[in-house]
Amino acid sequence: MPLDVILLVLFGALLHATWNAIVKAGSDKSLDAALISAGGAVSALPFLAFLPLPHSASWPFIGVSAILQFAYFQLVAAAYRAGDIGLVYPLMRGCAPLLIAATSGFILKEDLSAGALAGTMTICAGVLTLALEARRGSSRAVLLSLANACVIASYTYVDGVGARLSGNAISYTLWMSLLPPVLLFSWAASQRGAFAVAHHVRRNWWRGLIGGAGSIASYGLALWAMTKAPVATVAALRETAILFALVISITVFKEKASVWRYVAGVVIAIGGLVLKLA
């Protein structure tokens, strides 16, 4: 994998960890996640007029991706309600690239080199190591996390192929971002009422705008990288976001880190180095 691709994916990972921290710090994680999605759509709108439309072959993928993104945000909220973040986040983010690495040869006909496969598995092992520090959890939290890992792997495939068919990965990303917030807010209004949703938006719109810009930039960088390198490799490298999340948890949220966090950080860093040398 070229160095410039690695650096941009790592920057996207930092943005991903940042917007997740914004959601974590919020008072209502479901609505804050919807605000992040909406902020991404608002950030995308000014650029649409300057980019070509995605090729027609990619539009079905945009539609399927919107549905999967809706499911992703719903499962994130449900999993965090059921279990500790130290268990939920590593399972969701660690199992997804494992699923992709195990199936990309069959689905995308992409053959990973021995080095790329070793780096991918090393990063996944490091992410999953973080689950060992969980202080509490439940079978429901585990099942929800694993279900969301399947959703993450699914939309990674859908968007990886869609971005390639679109002719312009940035254009694909921006158009893809428009529909999920419509689905999320329509669902929230039907469950909580339009007044409660509007009240939360008025008080927290800035969180959505900042986090949404980071979210769309993060995913756009990942999709661009998938046009330059194997999807499984990019998906694994993107999970280095957990390293940035660890730094944020210690410096911003003042959380105490167990030895497993540091072990995982070292393992993930080694995996990134293996990917660079592969």
TrEMBL record:
<keyword id="KW-0997">Cell inner membrane</keyword>
<feature type="transmembrane region" description="Helical">
    <location>
        <begin position="6"/>
        <end position="23"/>
    </location>
</feature>
<keyword id="KW-0444">Lipid biosynthesis</keyword>
<keyword id="KW-1133">Transmembrane helix</keyword>
<dbReference type="InterPro" id="IPR000620">
    <property type="entry name" value="EamA_dom"/>
</dbReference>
<dbReference type="GO" id="GO:0005886">
    <property type="term" value="C:plasma membrane"/>
</dbReference>
<dbReference type="GO" id="GO:0009103">
    <property type="term" value="P:lipopolysaccharide biosynthetic process"/>
</dbReference>
<feature type="transmembrane region" description="Helical">
    <location>
        <begin position="170"/>
        <end position="189"/>
    </location>
</feature>
<keyword id="KW-1003">Cell membrane</keyword>
<protein>
    <submittedName>
        <fullName>EamA family transporter</fullName>
    </submittedName>
</protein>
<keyword id="KW-0812">Transmembrane</keyword>
<feature type="transmembrane region" description="Helical">
    <location>
        <begin position="35"/>
        <end position="53"/>
    </location>
</feature>
<feature type="transmembrane region" description="Helical">
    <location>
        <begin position="87"/>
        <end position="108"/>
    </location>
</feature>
<keyword id="KW-0443">Lipid metabolism</keyword>
<keyword id="KW-0472">Membrane</keyword>
<dbReference type="InterPro" id="IPR037185">
    <property type="entry name" value="EmrE-like"/>
</dbReference>
<dbReference type="GO" id="GO:0009245">
    <property type="term" value="P:lipid A biosynthetic process"/>
</dbReference>
<feature type="domain" description="EamA">
    <location>
        <begin position="141"/>
        <end position="274"/>
    </location>
</feature>
<keyword id="KW-0441">Lipid A biosynthesis</keyword>
<feature type="transmembrane region" description="Helical">
    <location>
        <begin position="259"/>
        <end position="277"/>
    </location>
</feature>
<dbReference type="Pfam" id="PF00892">
    <property type="entry name" value="EamA"/>
</dbReference>
<dbReference type="GO" id="GO:0022857">
    <property type="term" value="F:transmembrane transporter activity"/>
</dbReference>
<feature type="transmembrane region" description="Helical">
    <location>
        <begin position="141"/>
        <end position="158"/>
    </location>
</feature>
<dbReference type="InterPro" id="IPR000390">
    <property type="entry name" value="Small_drug/metabolite_transptr"/>
</dbReference>
<feature type="transmembrane region" description="Helical">
    <location>
        <begin position="232"/>
        <end position="252"/>
    </location>
</feature>
<feature type="transmembrane region" description="Helical">
    <location>
        <begin position="59"/>
        <end position="80"/>
    </location>
</feature>
<feature type="transmembrane region" description="Helical">
    <location>
        <begin position="209"/>
        <end position="226"/>
    </location>
</feature>
<keyword id="KW-0448">Lipopolysaccharide biosynthesis</keyword>
<feature type="transmembrane region" description="Helical">
    <location>
        <begin position="114"/>
        <end position="134"/>
    </location>
</feature>
